[in-house]
Task: structure prediction
Amino acid sequence: MHYNFLLNLIISLLPITNFRHLKLFLALCNAAHFSPHSLPLVCLNKAKKSGKIDLMVLRNTTVARIAKISLVVSFIHVSGVVPASHASISHVDYTADDSVKNNLGSVGLDTSSFLYKSNSRGTAATTFEADIHGQFETPTLKGKGDLLVNSFITDQPQAVVESHEAYLTTSDELMGNHHLTVGRKYYEWSKLDEQWNMMSLWSPRYNWDQLHPESIGMTGIFYSYETPRLKFLAFASPIAIPERGTPIEEKDNNIVSPNPFWKPLPSQMTVANQPTNISYSLLMPSTEEILMRPNFALRSRYDFDNGMWFSLNTGVLPIHMVQMAAEPYLDSTAPAGQLQVNIRPQLPMRNINTAEVGFDNPSKDWNVWLSASYEQPFHFQNQSTWLNPIITPTSIFSAGTRVQMTSNFWFNGSALFIHEQPFTSASSLSDVKVNLPTRFPLKQAFKVGGNWRFNDYTQSNIAWIQDLAEQNHIVSLDLQHELQHLPITIGAGTDLIVSKTTQGGVGQYYGDDRLRGWLKYAF
Result:
């Protein structure tokens, strides 16, 4: 997939200025498996403009399909830590609070064994995990924080440090129903965001495990006011921190990562019977451009006595997932012709508004909710010589429910529908029609699942997500048990993927079916 992506990308943007470039250009068209009678439109147009091809031959040439282009690097963390894919599927988050909340922290191992072999990864991957957490309370001030460290131990060890929460807040005794909080704190901003966190609509994520991301708090200053009926939350910050994921690095003019979900980019291809190197460069924005992006958000919720509620959100926030643009060109100064691809991270901002309404049964055994959001991005580049990511105004709709079926089993389900407005690219290649990925990996989908709580020590979670647009499925099952008399937690799980394509939020993981096991020791 990445080979064809690069060929089509270079074909689309390659300038033809001399006969050597034309010869290379036609070789690329042939390498992309286009027959002489099915050259893509861009090949025809560029060849015509070069004046080096007999137009009588071109008259009988039929214009065929242009291969779909998918960005092989979907979004990059600005400090060199990059999520390996454009989206994540999550059905359960196991945090330190679930099993070791009365302890200082924990250490453990998480191992994945893949059911299928792949040239881009090994058959197994093991992660070392460690976290430390704590909290305190005085008559006027409360604090809470955690620190998480992850590192692969089956490949190049590279540690990533993250925090779900780290904040100071005023106590009830000091300000009553009013609270002022400074730092990173997690709030439930919307039901849609809780159910479909692969979009990072409000809260950012920590993406170490691509199939099981963890929602984390935003960083800044919070003001909240709460009564039994009215809840109001305001957030503001002078900085915006992009989402973090597994580590990558630029090595020998290529981009590599120990992440098992990472799909390596080709480092060389044969052009005109000559091996041609491909060089990748990551052109990072300045630290000021990365961090200094002021943002704010407001949320209000009103609860009625009968269980009905509604909420309204508005804000100016970053798109938490770093978007990508690619700039390919031919390096004519190299002896054999060097293919260069500049990777340019994009850090868009957006206006976002969300309205939700729901009903919580007074007996607390079921609820239902509806959600609608509108996002209008701004502050991003759309260059004529770049392959630009699709960033466009979008409407997001969702509905969901949670029902207690038995004393120890909860069922949950949700549906998702996304409508993106047409994207107008600034590309100078107006004749080229390509299907580019967007920041929303799922356009139409549903999710069903459940949680079993067998006792105080054992729980299980199951989820089935179907991508209706691509007809792809993923089924995840986890079982976790805390030993009764020992500070040890063990777990096992599986992620099974049934996919017709390699596109979309589920299809991109085609072939990555796995069995998981984890062990944690609390201290």
DSSP finds nine helices and 28 strands in the chain.
